[in-house]
Amino acid sequence: xxKKSFIEKYARILVIVAVFCGGASGPLAAKITASALVIGxxxxxxxxxxxxxxVLKNREQREAMMRLPKRTLxxxxxxxxxxxxxxxxWFTSVKYANVSAAAVLAAFHPLVVLAITVFVYKKKVPGKAxxxxxxxxxxxxxxxxxxxxxxxxxxxxxxILAFLSGVxxxxxxxIGKKAREGVEGSTYVFLVFLxxxxxxxxxxxxxxTPVIGYxxxxxxxxxxxxxxxxxxxxxxxxxxxxxxxxxxxSAWESMDPVVSTILAFVLIGQVPTVTEVVCxxxxxxxxxxxxxxxxxx
Length: 297
Fold this sequence. Notes:
By secondary structure, the chain is mainly alpha-helical.
């Protein structure tokens, strides 16, 4: 019997650990004065070499990458495009709305993954697991609808962008599962991050956005985003996609609102409303239900 690798053996646990790393993304981005394009480009510029060097330096991996079918390369590139769209919307949303509220809305992505899993990939999902995800999503919808003042003070823009970031995240997970098939983990991560980096670079060039001249703290937080969130979160998710279903990754990533709320309070002093706290609790409870039912299946 072939011995399992560390990632294969602990994939489900690593996904949960990655959630806590990813939860720092909103609070850290909210402290950065630079635009979303600068944040994304800087974050990926710092993180990308950690995945490019091992792949390009290893002759076998490099040659295997060059032999990948065009369809696989296209899917990896498309996955990176949706990661770019997710990052851009997310980094922009936290500049308008409270991090906790934005995180709850961004947690809508399991619904996108669920739809693609069922209608595109034609896979069966336990009814109880679907119900748990719907409960989590309803909590986010209630939070948004209850905050009527958001539509008069500008936070609506942040809400819309946060929701879109969740939609793009869901597509990113769903396409990534298909793209990951037949591709070595580190190679897949390198290709996706490279595609995402190219998108940010082109966006910065086309818009003429300056990348220098910001406070030193901005660059410090961008480096932290690269190591804690890009490497500790997104890289881990991508590696685990080959071992677990995208719905599992996407659903647990919905716990992000709780982590984001706590870190937003600690790092930037944002105090969540009672509604936001209640919604976070419901999301966590629903995810625990989902994990249980999905495991039973």
